[in-house]
Amino acid sequence: MTAWKIEGCTVADAPALARNNMSAFWEDPTWILLWSEGTTLARLIDSATQRYPRTLASGREEKRHEKAVDPATGQLVGYARWILPPGHFAAEDGRPAWPEAQVPAVGDEEKRKFEELAEAAWWGARREVGRIDDKNDEVMDRLLAQGTYIKLDYLAVHPDNKGKGIATALVESGIRHAEEIGVPLFTMSYKAGRGVYARLGFREVERVIQDDTEYGGKGEYGTYFMIYDVPKKE
């Protein structure tokens, strides 16, 4: 199996991330219900390309972004976004925690351009479908309030590259950092990804199964809340 390279992201990765991420979630039968009738994958990729520089450049203190790269071609083949908990943004020496996964800083002028680009992008999500995640948000907020966690906020592998160990390599990178600082991991998984987390030692703490036929879905929208426990640092 290929030994995927795990690297930090930069704003220059926006086009490759847009293609990877939108293509990955386009495979999810509930996620695609979010978009207005006639929306195409190509349009979503174009829009995400405009929005991602802002996403990558913002929240640098708490957010960490990693990409999986094919060492033979240099192609981006997967992506993970992590959110550090308060009190763990910096190492003991004051430098940023997990610096290799922190997007390099950009200047104020670049930030302004990224903001303008993102605001000009089309993003035609159907608000009524978005309400299906209200219950998930309630459960997530309640569980996160019960402890201190590094949150795996986003994990995506392009459909062409599924089943090649890419998601595993990205999650294992987060596990290494979590074990290094003694803080457990938390994530909300969809059905397709649950097996990856279970194999890596995550335990399911709660699940929410909803009927999405009201929005045009196939009937079952499942989300699984999972935690990876680490030994307490002494």
Q: Uncertain runs with pLDDT below 50, 5 residues or more?
A: none
Number of domains: 1
Q: Determine the strand fraction and express it as a percent band.
A: 15-25%
CATH topology grouping: Aminopeptidase
Oligomeric organization of the protein chains: single chain
What does this structure look like?
This protein has helices at 14-25, 41-57, 108-120, 127-130, 134-144, 166-181, 191-199, and strands at 5-8, 63-69, 76-83, 150-157, 185-190, 203-210, 221-228. By secondary structure, the chain is an alpha+beta fold. Strand 2 (63-69) and strand 3 form a beta hairpin. Helix content is 35%, strand content 21%. Helix 1 (14-25) packs across helix 2 (41-57) and helix 2 (41-57) runs antiparallel to helix 3 (108-120). It has a 7-stranded mixed β-sheet, sandwiched between helices. The model has no long low-confidence stretch (mean pLDDT 93). The chain is built from 7 helices and 7 strands. The protein has a single domain, classed as 3-Layer(aba) Sandwich (Aminopeptidase).
Considering the chains and any ligands shown, give keywords for the structure.
234 residues, globular, 21% strand, alpha+beta, 7-stranded mixed β-sheet, Aminopeptidase
Brief characterization of the structure:
This protein is of the alpha+beta class and 234 residues long. It has helices spanning 14-25, 41-57, 108-120, 127-130, 134-144, 166-181, 191-199, and strands at 5-8, 63-69, 76-83, 150-157, 185-190, 203-210, 221-228.
